[in-house]
Every structure is written in structure tokens, then in C-alpha cells.
Write a structure and sequence with these properties.
Radius of gyration: 59 Å
Number of strands: 31
Number of helices: 0
Strand order of the largest sheet: 7-8-5-10-11
Structural class: mainly beta
Distance between the termini: 192 Å
Mean pLDDT: 93
Low-confidence stretches: none
Shape: rod-shaped
Helix content: under 10%
Length: about 550
């Protein structure tokens, strides 16, 4: 007997033979030099132990991006990846009849380009009949398209081998549990989550403080920032910033746990499922002046957005990506215009010291703007009645036609007023009440409405007025007197003592006005007596 250690490879048949004997063997002859040919005599023999072939198979797996559909530079939904399953044989024998199974999970679709005559069925890719020489390896590859959601860990395992593997056992039914042997493995590519976020913004009037029916100073508006996620993944860790300009004040009712600091409203930690949207709201009071355009922008997201980049510091420049937006509500400008009018004597033609026929008066129409906005495009009309003539010296580029003085395109800042003036000569008779009215304004006046056709009825709004200067009435009175003999007592035919004469005092009015309250006195000297028949209720 003897012992020997079996080698990994080689010839396992060994021979034994009788090499010598003192006696003769009739059916065989000892051979002093034993050979290894096929025994032909019974004093020689061979033995070939059954030596089990060993092939130590191990497996690894990797994935690389081969088609970057969204050009993100990393693996994400819609991209194509190539999986490589590497089967290595550490020997000591060549491996034959090798089978491999690869279980593809639901995070992938469109499996293709399977190498080495592999096939796929029900998400299981199978290879069989493979040969791997000792000390070498074999790469098995296939492609798959990444889905938006699902399990991205896939498993590969040796399913068969003609040789024994001392440290692992092929599994004809590949599993997806944690690999515990070196002939099974898993690979989990890092799949970048994609969430395409976009943002829009709107504003609606919620408290109409001045009941104007439109957004204006003092009103409360509600802003709605709508953040939409078109996927393919759910969006988490979403942040939004909204910059509120100086055209608004009293920010409140911020939804979704948002907060405000220094005019910036911030939301954070928001979640938006794929295919849905989220409304973020807040209220603000409109100021009389300022910038009404406010901006909103996505400031953060756990997922990648391929067509835009969140900005942790929201800006107020023109939006260029779909994750930023702006809204400019139409804010109705309010300018509360009112009007007054006065007249002063500027040329006292008759030096009477008061306004009378022939004098020149200057009318001043004062248009005041109580705001809150500046007034532009202001028009004023002044209707001059027939009690005046020779209209002139119209200020502020006004013009006159048919007794109507018109001004247009005027501007009056909030809190100030504008004087419009013209002159007119007073006539002897006519209507001295003239009317002025605001005829146009670019801004809304909440308590009055401009009238493009000024009227002359009683003013009922504060943007219309009238003025009636006190015009002194003039009546040019003259007087003549005559006497005629009415009772010729002595029939002398001429006035003589004892005769009765009738005196006639004639008072004439050359105008231009009627004379009223006229009094006349007649002093009768002592050359007459028995005064009587006094007309017109006169007395003596």
C-alpha cells in the first residue's frame, strides 16, 4: 500500500506489474521495467479512480448607462442601461454545461440585446450550455429601459454546471433573496429620480374694500401659486419662494405652513405626487402705488428637474424656466377728483368797484386730486353762458368752441390741485351762472363719474361745480320836466296867477338793466300853491 494526493488535472490511471520471481509463471512473464500499456497478462494491472471535476464559479453584475434619453448624464427614467453578468471560473477544471439566470424586477422594461443566445420569459433571463475555461470569465449582457418607479435591484445566479463547485451550489430556480454564495449576486443601479416641476400664479379679488368691482388700492387679493409635477416620479422636499413687491402690504393667510420674512414668502418640505399639483395661497392688501408684479419660483426638490433648476434664492428677473413665474394683477388706479370754481374782477371798466356790464372777470377752475393715485388724462369742460362774451386768456392749452371751454391731457399728482383760468367780459344781460365739470380721467373716481359732455344742471357730484358772480345791475336814468297850463282861470291864454299848471317829470332808463326802486323828488318853490293830483302814489 501507499498514499498519494490527487492533483486537479492529469492522468489518474496508474499501472502495477510483477517485475521478478524466482519461479516460473506459466501464463505471464515478469517485466523488470513496468510499462503503462494496456495489461495483457494477469501479472499486470491498472486502476483508474473516479476523480470528481471541480470548477469554482463566481458571479458579479454591473450596469452602465448606454442611452441617456433625457441627457441628464445619469441613469433616470426612460434611459437604457446595459447589464453585464460576469461569470468567472477559478477552476481547477474547465466548467461546462453552465447555466445562469437573471431576474429583472419591475423597475425595468423593454428587455433586449440578450447575448450568448440567452432568452427572456416573465422577467427571467436564462442562459444555458455555457463553457468557461479554468481561470477565465464570461460576460453575459442585456439591455433594459428604466421605468419611473419600481424595484431597481435585480439578481443573477448560476443555475447549473457539469462540475462541482465546492463553495456554492447552483440553483435551478434563481431567487431574489440576499446573495449568500459567490455564484449569486445583485446589482442596484443608482437611478436618479426625475420630477418635472412647473409653476403658475394667479390673483383674485377677495375683499373689495371700495366696492369698485375691480382690484384697487385698499382691496385684499388672494394669490394662488400652483406647483405641478408631471413626473415621472413623486416630488419630495419641494420648496417654493414668492417675492412680494412694495405694491402690497399686510400679507396673511399663508397656506401649507408657509412663512413670510422681509417680503419673501417661503414654503418647504412639500410633497407632490406625479401627475398632480399643489396650490399655495396667501392674501395681501393692495397699496396705492408701487410694483404689482410678484415672482414665485421652485427653490428646492429632492428630485432632478431636467428642464429647470431650483433656485434657493428666488429672483425677480424675467422667468426663463417653467419652475418660475410672475403675476401682475390689473390694479385699477384710483384718483378722487373734485372741482371748484371762482370769479374775480380783473378789469373794472366802469370803475364801479364791483362786477358789472363791460367788466372783465377771471374765472378759476380748481381741480383737486385726493388720490391715492396720480391722475392723468384729465379733461375739464366749462360751459360759459350768454351773460359773458369775449372769452380769452385760456390757460393750460385749453380751447373754446361754441361757449364750451375744454382742457384735456392734464396731470394732477395725488394730494395736489391744478388751477385752470380764463377771462370773460360781462354782458349787460343774460345768465351769469356757468358750470365746470371733469370730462375725463385715466383713473377711476369712486364717488363721481366724468361726463364727456358737460351739462348745466345742478351739480350732484364733487367733480362738477358752478359759479355765479354777483353782477351789479346798471340802469342809466335821466330826467326831464315840463309844465303845461291846464286851468286858465283868467282866460288869458297864458299862465298867470291863479291858473293851474300840470308838471310832468319824465324819468328815462337808457339801461342796460331795468331800473327798480327808483325814487324821484320834485321841489316845488313858493311860486306855487295847492299842490295836487300827484301821480304814481307820490306824496307831498
Amino acid at each position: 500500500t501507499y498514499t498519494a494526493v490527487v492533483t486537479a488535472t492529469g492522468n489518474y490511471t496508474n499501472f502495477a506489474e510483477v517485475t521478478a520471481s524466482d519461479q516460473t509463471d506459466l501464463d505471464s512473464t515478469p517485466d523488470s521495467t513496468p510499462d503503462t500499456d494496456t495489461p495483457t497478462e494477469d501479472d499486470e494491472t491498472s486502476a483508474t479512480p473516479t476523480v470528481e471535476a471541480i470548477a469554482d464559479l463566481s458571479i458579479t453584475k454591473s450596469a452602465v448607462l448606454t442611452t441617456d434619453a433625457d441627457t441628464s448624464g445619469s441613469i433616470s427614467a426612460g434611459d437604457t442601461v446595459t447589464f453585464t453578468v460576469t461569470v468567472s471560473n477559478a477552476g481547477p477544471n474547465n466548467a461546462t454545461g453552465v447555466g445562469v439566470g437573471d431576474t429583472v424586477p419591475d423597475g425595468y422594461t423593454t428587455i433586449g440585446s440578450i447575448s450568448n443566445s440567452g432568452s427572456e420569459s416573465g422577467g427571467l433571463i436564462s442562459w444555458s450550455g455555457l463553457s468557461i475555461t479554468s481561470g477565465s470569465s464570461l460576460d453575459l449582457t442585456y439591455t433594459a429601459v428604466v421605468t419611473a418607479t419600481g424595484n431597481y435591484t435585480n439578481f443573477a445566479e448560476v443555475t447549473a454546471s457539469d462540475q462541482t463547485d465546492l463553495d456554492s451550489t447552483p440553483d435551478s430556480t434563481p431567487d431574489t433573496d440576499t446573495p449568500t454564495e459567490d455564484d449569486e449576486t445583485s446589482a442596484t443601479p443608482t437611478v436618479e429620480a426625475i420630477a418635472d416641476l412647473s409653476i403658475t400664479k394667479s390673483a383674485v379679488l377677495t375683499t373689495d374694500a371700495d366696492t369698485s368691482g375691480s382690484i384697487s388700492a385698499g382691496d385684499t387679493v388672494t394669490f394662488t401659486v400652483t406647483v405641478s409635477n408631471t413626473g415621472p416620479n413623486n416630488a419630495t422636499g419641494v420648496g417654493v419662494g414668492d417675492t412680494v413687491p412694495d405694491g402690497y402690504t399686510t400679507i396673511g393667510s399663508i397656506s401649507n405652513s408657509g412663512s413670510e420674512s422681509g417680503g419673501l414668502i417661503s414654503w418647504s418640505g412639500l410633497s407632490i405626487t406625479s401627475g398632480s399639483s399643489l396650490d399655495l395661497t396667501y392674501t395681501a392688501v393692495v397699496t396705492a402705488t408701487g410694483n404689482y408684479t410678484n415672482f414665485a419660483e421652485v427653490t428646492a426638490s429632492d428630485q432632478t428637474d431636467l428642464d429647470s433648476t431650483p433656485d434657493s434664492t428666488p429672483d425677480t428677473d424675467t422667468p426663463t424656466e417653467d419652475d418660475e413665474t410672475s403675476a401682475t394683477p390689473t390694479v385699477e388706479a384710483i384718483a378722487d377728483l373734485s372741482i371748484t370754481k371762482s370769479a374775480v374782477l380783473t378789469t373794472d371798466a366802469d370803475t364801479s368797484g364791483s362786477i358789472s356790464a363791460g367788466d372783465t372777470v377771471t374765472f378759476t377752475v380748481t381741480v383737486s386730486n385726493a388720490g391715492p393715485n396720480n391722475a392723468t388724462g384729465v379733461g375739464v369742460g366749462d360751459t360759459v353762458p350768454d351773460g359773458y362774451t369775449t372769452i380769452g386768456s385760456i390757460s393750460n392749452s385749453g380751447s373754446e368752441s361754441g361757449g364750451l371751454i375744454s382742457w384735456s391731457g392734464l396731470s394732477i399728482t395725488s394730494g395736489s390741485s391744478l388751477d385752470l383760468t380764463y377771462t370773460a367780459v360781462v354782458t349787460a344781460t343774460g345768465n351769469y351762472t356757468n358750470f365746470a365739470e371733469v370730462t375725463a380721467s385715466d383713473q377711476t373716481d369712486l364717488d363721481s363719474t366724468p361726463d364727456s359732455t358737460p351739462d348745466t344742471d345742478t351739480p350732484t357730484e364733487d367733480d362738477e361745480t358752478s359759479a355765479t358772480p354777483t353782477v351789479e345791475a346798471i340802469a342809466d336814468l335821466s330826467i326831464t320836466k315840463s309844465a303845461v297850463l291846464t286851468t286858465d282861470a283868467d282866460t288869458s291864454g297864458s299862465i298867470s296867477a291863479g291858473d293851474t299848471v300840470t308838471f310832468t317829470v319824465t324819468v328815462s332808463n337808457a339801461g342796460p338793466n331795468n331800473a327798480t326802486g327808483v325814487g324821484v323828488g320834485d321841489t316845488v318853490p313858493d311860486g306855487y300853491t295847492t299842490i295836487g293830483s300827484i301821480s304814481n302814489s307820490g306824496s307831498e
